[in-house]
Structures are given as C-alpha cells and as structure tokens.
Amino acid sequence: MCCSGDDPRRVERDNKPALISRLNRIEGQVRGINRMVQEDRYCIDILTQVAAVKSALDSLAMQLLESHARGCVADAVAAGDGAAAIDELMQVVRKLR
Amino acid sequence: MCCSGDDPRRVERDNKPALISRLNRIEGQVRGINRMVQEDRYCIDILTQVAAVKSALDSLAMQLLESHARGCVADAVAAGDGAAAIDELMQVVRKLR
Amino acid sequence: MCCSGDDPRRVERDNKPALISRLNRIEGQVRGINRMVQEDRYCIDILTQVAAVKSALDSLAMQLLESHARGCVADAVAAGDGAAAIDELMQVVRKLR
Amino acid sequence: MCCSGDDPRRVERDNKPALISRLNRIEGQVRGINRMVQEDRYCIDILTQVAAVKSALDSLAMQLLESHARGCVADAVAAGDGAAAIDELMQVVRKLR
C-alpha cells in the first residue's frame, strides 16, 4: 500500500522489510568497493562492482516507482488532482535516467 | 598512477584518499535512503535520493575508467598486448551503461 | 489531448505537427551518420552524432511519455481500470532506460 | 581496420557495408515512428519503437567505439601520443551514457 493513512506524505509499504534488506545489501556492496580501493585492487574489478551496485539501485528504483504509480499517483488521479502527481512522477523518471 | 609496480593487478592510485571519501559519502547516502524507508517517507523523496546516489556512482565510475584507460590500458598497448586490455575496457563500458 | 474519441487506441495529439518535424530532423540526422560512414569519417565524429540522435530520441520519448501519463493513464485510472494502464506505463519506462 | 592510411582522420572500416545497412534499417525505423505519429497510433506502441531505435543505436555505438579503441586509440598510444586519444575516447563514452 502506498500513500494511505491520514498523512499523504507517509507511505506504509507492505514490502518495507524487503526494501530495507535490499538497501542493507547495497550498503554492504558500497563498503566492499571502498575496501577494494583501500586494497589497491584492479580497476576493472572495482568498476564491475560499481556496475552491480548501479543495477541493484536501478531495480530498487523501478520497484518504488511502480508502487508509487499504483498508489499515490492513482489515488491522486482518482481524487481529481492527478496533474501534480504526474508532474512529480515524470520529474523523477527523468532524474532516474 | 595506475597498474604500476610489480603486480599488475595492484593499482596504486594518487587519488586514493579522494576516492575513499567519496565512497564513504555514497555509503552514507545509501544509509540515509534506508532510514527514509524505515520512516515511511514519501516515494518521490526516496527516489530523488536514489537518483543522486546513482549519479555519484556514475561520476566515480567515469573517473576510475579514465584513470584505467590512461594507465593500465595505455601500458598494455605500449607493451604490445593491448587487445586483451581493450576487451576488458569495452566489457566494463557496456556493463556501466 | 491523448486517448480521446471513440477508439481508445487512436490518439489525437495537439503537438502532432511538432512531433512530426522532430522525427523528420532525427531521420535526417541518421541519414547524416550514414553519409559519414560512407565517407570514412573519423569514429569520434560519428559517435558524437550518434549520441546527439540518442539524446533527441530521449527527449521525444519523455514528451510522449508525459502526454501519455496525463492522458491515457489518467483517463484509465479515472475510469477505474488504472492497473493495466500503469502496468503498460512501467513496462515502457523500463524499456526506455 | 581503423585510422589506417595517410589521413588519420579517414577511417577505412572492414565492416562498412554492415554499418551502412544497419543505419539504413535505423532510418527506416525512424520513418516508421513518424508514420505511427501521423496515423495517431497509441503512445505505448510508438514508445516501444522509440526504445527499439535507441537500443539499435546503442549497439551500433558500442561496435564503433570498440573498433575505435582497437584502432585509432591503440595506434595513437603505440605512437606515443595516447593521452589525446584517451581524452577523446572518454569524452565520447560520457556523451553516449
């Protein structure tokens, strides 16, 4: 569920635990890259890890974007003020490119 | 400097401290996103932070790629075995897209 | 306007002439790249043009995506079947990455 | 072969016919998108085609970039002035992102 409850800016997410564990993993991956730099590891190996973190962030972003579109945006449209919600959606789609 | 010294897989980087502090910052940003999810923050605010982390990783990757091309790849070409180094370079350019 | 009229799959666009002239320009750019290859032009010059065409396509896509979200998706949500429209929207957002 | 012959800015490519036929196809795809807009076709169908053209351009770019790295960049490094060639390479890698 997204954008439910009294404060529209608070978002109760069913998949909250899963999102948190993914973010913990991504944090660990970044720490791993840090260690590789500290250990003077080969550039290609480090860059391969950077690409993996980017791809993990991408898929997290798509999941959040989808649940936002289904929740907040759909609710806003149904409530008659979809224009602002779609503005926001498109701005973040552009930022994520 | 890149790919210097006896072990070609160890890379002494002049900008090592700067890379490490950037990675510390990125790690902090990911932790911040984690906190936003835990606090049920609005999706667009979280997605904006995810886009910022991706862009920080992108610029870190371009910096590493450039120093790798100038160091390891140029050294390999000069030593007569550039083909394998360019293979590696192109593979990681594709992964980072 | 988007997704108006009797056939929901036909889309009357106010900006149709502008879209057509942009696509004519993009077609001309691709023809230009073709000529550069035929004239054995320098790779970097050709790649710079390829990047320009990609960026023109990107901005065309964002414009179409925005008008689609405002039109078809909002209409579908208001008509009570937003889920399928949001599925479609997210699939194409992923393809355009 | 890339960057051979007397004029370093002229590039004789073994795969020239293949590149030209790919560019002809991409040109045809862009013309097809133009026709879809003229026929008021559904946004998602048009956007799917735009994504296909972008992906075709991406793969063309990677092929050109690879042959450039193997040819012009390697030749320049071997001739002792790799720095400028690697500058150029990195600039276009950034543009193509």
From TrEMBL, chains A, B, C, D:
Gene3D superfamilies recorded for this chain?
Metal-sensitive repressor, helix protomer (1.20.58.1000)
What Pfam families is this protein classified in?
Answer: Trns_repr_metal (PF02583)
Protein origin, superkingdom: Bacteria
Which InterPro entries did the record assign? Metal_Tscrpt_repr, Metal_Tscrpt_repr_sf
PANTHER family for the chain: COPPER-SENSING TRANSCRIPTIONAL REPRESSOR RICR (PTHR33677:SF3), TRANSCRIPTIONAL REPRESSOR FRMR-RELATED (PTHR33677)
Report the sequence similarity comment from the record.
Belongs to the FrmR/RcnR family.
Q: What is this protein called?
A: Metal-sensitive transcriptional regulator
Q: Which organism is it from?
A: Chitiniphilus purpureus
